[in-house]
């Protein structure tokens, strides 16, 4: 292959993992938005906590890497359940301003709690994978990268199947479309709220735990991730799962290309410009709801 | 509310007290806190227009503040415009930016509006950080000064001391407050509240939610831009840190805990939440955690805020009832 194409392929490959991660995080965010009508500004903090808990379990508690990842997700889900019961339960039917201010407060709270617990320095989760790069037609990658990509892609599929194929997913989608009608046919709305919230937190925490071996995690990562996930959700159409997946992948790829071909520092601006463009040309997002 | 004689007297007493502060307070550190309070008070009464009266949560307000600071700083450094020209230019430019942004986003409400404002703020931060040729990026723009005030017949008055600059800020804050108060007391302000309370009703009466939201958004932004200009020249330095999310958080805390939709409440909130963090300096790690907890608790349990409700308790009973009915 010619060098230009090899470099392009390399950039695209780099974008797939982060794109999968964006998709995972945005799926949960869109689920919480659709079911609870809450724009969860603390969503990125679940990603950050997933990464930090995994780091803590692997490097300080000396747990096996493959045990630590699901355990970290479980810890974050437990926290999400506590938050759901203490705070988010009160936000049902609350005005948009209230829900947003509360989740902004929660985001600051969790970020600074992480700062107190773990300090400001970025941490990388030690992994058992050999650091030796693999090469295929001149495109380089590492075993860790392939593992992360496989896990995030598998989780997207699992999430999609859960939403599409299970009774719980069906109930969630029903609540999504019409709360009163769902309650009328016997769906326990309060339970759906709790499940949707835990589901969203789990996906974000999983993304954080998996990516933590690859991209160092720090207390401030949550805020950036929240913004990126919101961009994906607006691009894909608020409340659209397919939109979240496609939008996440597109943003990841676009940023990877931006990192390769734009002046340093501008890649993060791509998503913001895309949002403004989409809002001007197609305000409902690229995909319709549900 | 402040028409009857006792309230006029109270207003005059407060104004006298505000003007007397530098005569009583000689400590530079406390004067500094009063100056910063005044700058934030001006900025947050502008925020109250859109958040408190029209009822749209804008997360771009701190970005408008920072853009005003950058505009004024760049005009000073590149074109040698003093603050007296830079401040109105900053207000104008930021107001125009708000109109352009508003024409895109004020047609949406609720979640989407909120998210786009934060996206816009982040984009502006990226521009300030990455447009190095213009803004010097992370290095920021140092060397801003407070210009002397030249009055015909009197000559130049030096304003660089804190006790003198305090008066500049005080006058600016009063002007900002009066502008906002005149707007919310006029028929425009009543339309703001109607849009907040029942937008379909407002639209059915032929009141364009878009147009009136735009007035609140643009005026608020212009005031934030002017406040940012004051801040830049007072501190003498601007950097992309001004775009940090913590600024918009603290402004929202001032508005929400002060009592949104009251103007007086957010202005007092600005004073309280400038001084309070300084007193909590010992526990700086816990400061943001405490603030976040206060924000969550106040939003959930005290949607009317803390400062303004306390203030109205000082009023005689019948007036309180009248205010309650009006609110």
Task: Explain what the structure shows.
The complex is a heterodimer of chains A (290) and B (327). Chain A is mainly alpha-helical. Chain A has a domain at 23-221. Chain A has helices spanning 3-36, 43-60, 65-86, 96-118, 143-165, 167-177, 179-184, 189-211, 221-236, 241-261, 267-281, and strands at 134-136, 139-141. Chain A has a two-stranded antiparallel ribbon. In chain A, a hairpin with a 2-residue loop joins strand 1 and strand 2 (139-141). The longest helix of chain A is centred in the N-terminal third of the chain and has 34 residues, at 3-36. Chain B has helices spanning 5-24, 28-54, 61-79, 83-105, 111-130, 132-135, 162-185, 187-197, 199-204, 209-235, 245-258, 264-279, 284-301, 307-312, 317-326; strands spanning 141-142, 149-151, 155-157, 237-238. In chain B, strand 2 and strand 3 (155-157) form a beta hairpin. Chain B starts with a helix and ends with a helix. Chain B is mainly alpha-helical and 327 residues long. Chain B is built from 15 helices and four strands. Chain B has a single domain, classed as Orthogonal Bundle (ABC transporter involved in vitamin B12 uptake, BtuC), CATH 1.10.3470.
